[in-house]
Structure formats: structure tokens, C-alpha cells
Amino acid sequence: KTDLTTQEFLLGQDGTPFKKTPYIGQHGWVSIMNIELVPWTEIQDMIVEGYARTAPKKLVQQLKSTMSST
Predict the structure, then answer these.
(1) Which residues on adjacent β-strands are paired with residue 30?
(2) What is the C-alpha separation between 2 and 29, in angstroms, rounded?
């Protein structure tokens, strides 16, 4: 899950490996159609961002403290 600006950017790239997720794409969800075209660090950052957007606040705080200690 991304914000709508990021979603628009990802979907607007030429030869994009991303696709608006069916049924929930209007809320910022993006699917990766070809994982080989996206660097793992970028995918990892998007996963963490998406989790932070949807997880309960307490779990997001735990994630932030875990990431800052590594």
C-alpha cells in the first residue's frame, strides 16, 4: 500500500513492473508483476512502508524501534 502520489509515479513509468491491485487499487495498493525488474531494496522499502500504513499504531512503533536499533 502506497500513497496515491507514489502509486501514480510507480504506474506511470515506462515498462513498469507494477500494476494497480484489482478491487483495492483505488486505495493505493500496488502489485508487482515482475519481481526481477525491481531491486530487492526498493521492494523491501515498499513492504515496510505499506505495513506502516496499515498496521496498528503500537506495532508500527515496535517496527520503528526495531529498525532504528539495527
Answers:
(1) 20
(2) 6
